[in-house]
Amino acid sequence: MQLARRALGAAARRLQRPELLAAFYPGARQIMREEIAIRSLLAGALAADSVYVDVGANRGQLLRHALRVAPQGNHVAFEPIPELANALRREYPSVDCRQLAVGREATTSQFCHFRTMDGWSGLERSPEISDELGDPEFISVQVSTLDAELQGLSPSVLKIDVEGAELDVLEGARALLARTRPLVIFEHVNAAAQLYDAPPQAPWDLLGDLGYRIYSVTGDGPFTRSAFAENTVVVNWLATPGSGRDSH
C-alpha cells in the first residue's frame, strides 16, 4: 500500500493533476490533499525574493512552483543523478543546481538510480522496487551537508525528499536550522527510514531539540513524539520553528 500511495504521489507531481488520482482509490484523496497543501505552503511562505532550497529536486516538480512565487530568490536545488541535474540546469537556469547528494557528512557514496522509476532512487536501495520494475544502476555520487553548502544563505523554506535519508540530511543541517529557522517540508515514511537505521521518532527528536513543532502538511497537529512515530497515513510533514516541544 505504501508503494502504491507513494507511486501515485509521484505521478501527481509529474502530471500536476493530483485531483485525477482520487478516482483510483480512497487513499489518493490524502495524496491529493498533501500535494495541494505543499503548493499552498510555498505560496504562503515565500516572498518574491525568498530563498527556497530543494533537497532531492528530481525533475523540479516543486521547484517550478517555488519559482512562480519567488522569481527573484536565490534558490538552490540538490539532485545527485547526473542527467536529472543537467536537465534542471537547462530548464531552470536561474537556479543554483548542484549535482550532489545531501547527508550528515561529506563523503563519496554509492547511489541506487532506478532508471525507470527515478523518484525512488537513493543512497540505499528500496527493496520495494524489483530489477524488472526499476532497472537499477549503481553510481558513485558526492555527498555534502547543508551546513557546508548553504553558508551565507538564509532559506525561508527547506524541502527534503530523499527516500528515507531525511534524518541524515537534518543531522547535516543542524547549524543551518538553528541559524535561519526555515520552514521544513519533508517526506518521511517509517519503512523507508528503516533502510538508514533511523528510529521512527528520530526526525521528531532532532527537530524538537531545535525548537520545531511537527505537523502534517495538511495542517493536522502538532504531533506528539509518539503520534509521529506511530503514524502510517501521512507522507509529507511540516516542521515550523517555535519554542518548546510537545509531550510524548
If you had to describe this structure to a student in words, what would you say it looks like?
The chain is an alpha/beta fold. 35% of the residues lie in helices and 20% in strands. It contains eleven helices and ten strands. The chain has helices at residues 2-15, 28-45, 63-69, 82-91, 131-134, 146-149, 166-171, 174-180, 190-193, 202-209, 225-230; strands spanning 52-55, 76-78, 96-98, 101-102, 107-114, 136-144, 157-160, 183-187, 212-216, 236-241. The strands form two sheets. Strands 3-2-1-7-8-10-9 form a seven-stranded mixed β-sheet, with helices on both faces. Strands 4-6-5 form a three-stranded mixed β-sheet. Helix 3 (63-69) links the parallel strand 1 (52-55) and strand 2 (76-78). Helix 1 packs across helix 2 (28-45). The protein is globular and about 45 Å long. 42% of the residues are buried.
What does the secondary structure layout of this molecule look like, with pairings?
Layout: H1 2-15, H2 28-45, E1 52-55, H3 63-69, E2 76-78, H4 82-91, E3 96-98, E4 101-102, E5 107-114, H5 131-134, E6 136-144, H6 146-149, E7 157-160, H7 166-171, H8 174-180, E8 183-187, H9 190-193, H10 202-209, E9 212-216, H11 225-230, E10 236-241
